[in-house]
Amino acid sequence: MRVVLAGALLAMAAIQPALALELAVNGNASQGGLMIGHTDPAATVHLDGQTIRTTADGTFVFGFGRDQGPSAELTATKGSETARRTIDIVQRAYDIQKINGLPDKLVTPDEATMARINSEAQEIGAARAQDSDALGFLESFRWPVEGIISGVYGSQRILNGEPRRPHFGVDIAAPEGTPIKAPADGRVTLAAKALYFTGGTVIIDHGHGVSTTYLHMSRLDVKVGDVLKQGDPVGAVGKTGRATGPHLCWRLNWFQERLDAALVVPPMPARAAQN
Asked: What is the C-alpha to C-alpha distance for residues 139 and 62, in angstroms, rounded to an integer?
């Protein structure tokens, strides 16, 4: 009887289909959205051909930029197994403003200023290129400051017929000196007091290419290398750099891909939005 039962079990195993390779994703599948996925820890993950590394338990993260196309192909491969998922990406409409008749010096900086701008851009790019093992990106992000939303992600100005770079942050108007707090655990990779465009600027690495940036700050309470927990002080709201009034421009990146920070937090509390 035992031999017959063992033979039956072997036959069942032979015809039982193997479990499919897991490839699950959650998040905001839209331009500017951040998504988190999970697969077998031994699998290799690609997004449109780009390799995405996973954590020890198979978790991974990625995001879509402002002008991402309508779909993306995600794959996970383990040996001879491949799981595929086509992600349909919501296409967004952005506010475009045309302003004409401006003096040329306000539209095109001089050579010396451009050299400074380019140098600072390289410094910022290096900070956003960090690919640490930190896991702060898995937390539920919180608003770093509460206030009136005065600027949104994706908007763009066309000055004297020349398109400017889109606005990649969410602007939060608040009184100068209002404390800014870390929205999730992370490590400071940039702390600059006087950049040309952004003034007091801080970048926090939350792991696996996810970072947040804080612009126009009046005070920096951190330095490069500081390890922060969610809610720790980062600095204070200001109007440094090219800003017309006190506010925090808060940005979210996946490496150099510019995402919409407003998509990873709950709605701004009504009490703050009405002040």
From this structure: 15
213-229: average pLDDT: 98
CA end-to-end distance (rounded Å), the chain: 80
Q: Is the dihedral of CA 4, 5, 6, 12 positive or negative?
A: positive
Amino acid at site 202: V
CATH number corresponding to 2-88: 2.60.40
Q: Residue 23: which of 69, 87, 80, 66 has the closest Cα?
A: 87
Distance CA 137, CA 184 (A): 7
Burial 129-146 (b: 16+ CB within 10 A, else e): ebebebbbbbeebebbbb
- pLDDT value for 102: 46
What's the pLDDT tens digit per position in 5-49? 344 434 444 444 455 899 999 999 999 999 999 999 999 999 999
Has domain 96-273 been given CATH number 3.30.9.10?
A: no
Q: Do domains 2-88 and 96-273 have the same CATH topology?
A: no
Model pTM? 0.87
252, 251, 253, 247: which is closest to 272 by C-alpha? 247
* SS3 of residue 94 by DSSP: coil
Q: Is the dihedral of CA 142, 146, 148, 153 positive or negative?
A: negative
